[in-house]
Amino acid sequence: MEQTKSGHPAPPPGGEVDPALLEILVCPLTKGPLRYDRARGELVSERAGLAYPIRDGIPIMLPDEARKLD
Amino acid sequence: MRPMPRTDPMRIFDRRLLRLRRDRAAATVGRVAPVLDAAAALLLDRLDDTTRRFSRALDIGGRGAVAPLLRARGIPLVVSMDLSPRMAARAGGLAVAGDEEWLPFAPESFDLVVASLSLHWVNDLPGALVQIRRCLRPDGLFLASLPGFGALQPLREALAAAESTLRGGVSPRISPFPELADLAGLLQRAGFALPVADREVLPLRYRTPMALLRDLQAAGEGNAVLARDPRIPPRALLPMALGHLEGAGEEGLAMPLPLLVMTGWAPHESQSRPARPGSADRRLAEALGTVERGAGEGTGRPRSGGSA
Q: Is A57 touching B (CB cutoff 8 A)?
């Protein structure tokens, strides 16, 4: 993993998401679980085939803003 | 991507346009903070009616008026969801961009959901209510206010009169608002227990009609009705409509805001509800300390007069 000088992992793209949010967020379409892809700064819904972006620490849980998985 | 055909009769509002409006309004919504704060305070007063303590709250579309009040009541977790990420960021809770029609929360995530003046742009209100109920824990509370039927009525009439003069027809320039009778039924259908819908009025007054229009714009409440006339309105429309309103009075323009307040609880066994017929294990007569008699038998009491 990429390390900063202080030894902490580099902040993920899109900013840190509060862990309390990660516990309760689900895919808005399937209501299924999300996988937090920290390296890409995305919340991935395998079942919907969508990756929801995180911008400035805010999860963007809007289907038409999500990236389609290949 | 979900299809959003303009011809679908179930789609009344343009959610994409609404998101843009709210994004833009994030910078200006502070100007209407007094109105939003008053509406939020009026709604959250309902929390004083219950002795229940809440620990996990969802604020839907609160625009900075709701989350701080929830925190001030000592609720440790407050999540603020808005269709616009920018609006969510300034709402005061943990920010999530999300759509009321596609709630992104796991079942039983919250014990309180508050939607102050934010559900009136939802196309599928019954669907949104079901999703809200599901993200509540048993015995969790849902509290919402919507602008009711009659909101902005003077403006609606003035615009319609001016447009019909100028164009010989009228297009929807103000959103349709629900009526009180619709809401209690909707709550019940969505599976809420002890559903209540009632009406309050927020007395508002504007110095000029233009000040009202500026407030609506600052709040991101511009017309997002799909069937709106896409043409640029005739230049004379607004001045003529505002002219109709100017005549309204010298102490400014009274524009009372009817608020429909909804409360409903996620079902829980501790809540009172009617028992199944025939499920009683005690006789009513026993509880009343009296003697049970068959139908048609006399009560054994004198019919009239006679006293000891």
A: yes
